[in-house]
Amino acid sequence: MFGLILFVLSLQEVTLTTRIDSVLVTPNGAVISRHAAVKVEKGDYEMVIPDLPPDLDDNTVRVTASNGLRITDVFVTEEKSRIHQKEVEKLRKQIDSLDAVIGSLNDELSVLGVQESLLVLNTRITKLGVTSELMKASIDTGKWRASLRFIGKHLSDILENKRRLKVRLKEIQALRDSVSAKLKQIASSLGVRKAIHVVVHAPESGKYALSASYRVRSVSWKPEYELRARSDGDSITVVYFASINQKTGETWKDVHLTISTAVQPDFVQQPQFVPQYLHTWRSIRGGAPMATEMAEQPALKAAPAPAAPPQVKRTELFSTFSLAGRVTIPSGNWHRIRLDSYSLPCRFQRYAYTFASSSVFLVAMTQNRSKYPMLPGQASLFLDNSFVRKVSLPMVPVGDSLSIAYGIDPGFKVEKKLVKRFRKETWDNKIRIEYHYEITLRNLHGKPLDLTVIDRVPVSQDKQLKIKVMEMEPEPSKFDRNSGKVEWNVRAEPSKTYKIRFGYAVEYPKGLVVRGLD
Fold this sequence. Notes:
Blueprint: H1 2-9, E1 12-15, E2 19-26, E3 29-40, E4 43-52, E5 62-65, E6 70-80, H2 83-136, H3 141-187, E7 192-202, E8 206-216, E9 219-229, E10 235-246, E11 252-260, H4 281-285, E12 311-314, E13 319-322, E14 327-329, E15 334-353, E16 360-367, E17 377-383, E18 386-393, E19 401-408, E20 412-425, E21 430-443, E22 449-456, E23 466-473, E24 478-480, E25 485-492, E26 497-509
Parallel strand pairs: 1-4, 2-11, 9-17, 15-22
Antiparallel strand pairs: 2-3, 3-8, 4-7, 5-8, 6-7, 9-10, 10-15, 11-13, 11-14, 12-13, 15-16, 16-19, 17-18, 20-21, 21-26, 22-25, 23-26, 24-25
Helix pairs in contact: 2-3
């Protein structure tokens, strides 16, 4: 026992300086891989990888060594940040230095303020002297002009220096605010950090390489898109981005980055078999135990971590994007990375919902013919290189269709008006109201375009209430009598005016109250 204690105490601790080499980002976390090179003599060592994120999942730590370096144990501990503490001290010294400069500038401004007050006072005294000598008729004009010029020049110099110092003071204050904000951000992460301890045996003196990977939860990503189209085109360009939010408290500098759509599962222990015992009411009354004792569960070993334009790999369940080259992603705000860009066939359709609006709405009809599903995310729409709006895209599997509302098309003029409405009582004691509408539309674009005009005819929800279509000119392309929806497909030529007329009659017994009529 004492030999074991002496062995542990005799281990020499070596703090490793590691660099993040690669990061695999998933929607619910990231797997971070670090590398270190170390030169040691023959013997046993405890190598420490410090200042790791506090949400590091201990069960996902995986460590490998090269050149015969033998790993005998790996464990994770909590500690206070080492690297961040040094950076905090550096920033505090910088703030102290800036405070000294700010104090010096304020002192200079105070001195100039006193000088300005004295010169202003001197100017007043000079004016009083001029007045007095004028009254005595003994004024020396040359002398007084020289005095006023002297005062004016020095006062002008003072005001210029004050302006210059105030500009400098504002710049220094802005720099101090920036350093203070950075200090506050770093200080917020000065709590508990984690460290990976690796006990190793070096068979001989030399250089060795050590690699460690682990999973953290303080990282996520979400898809974002740019959908760019031309109003006279037949395709839409999809630019696919990953918006990454990493809050590990350290910058990923020059790392190989891979984005995966797969959600990483949490570590789950293997269930232990437990018998299911049944008890009768009588046995419970007789004092039998209400619960059975569970067999002691054996401890399980930690599960290992998951093992140009971007290289895209797709499986039936998920896709991964491996970025070419290296990228740098600071800890803090969201960072957008471009993943891919591709074109999809697109057809623009225009709709006029004349029962509710005089506008024409532009809709892009496309189909996902890319190599992977489009995940739900925010999309920025661009038409003819102009930003239109932002929309939320649903999940679009490969091969599925997608409709994208681009908003209002100002290149059409549409007007609907009630041309005739009259009410009368019939011979059989009923009320009959007729409505006749006219829709006028005009294509202001310089080319023929298709337009679907949608309006409606009321639908009766009472047997006593009768609806009769009086006219529809031209014949509608679709008429659903169950919903009352009427559609006209119009091939609108440039600058040509089109008219659509339709009318209906509503008939019901006298005394019946009808709701829903205009």
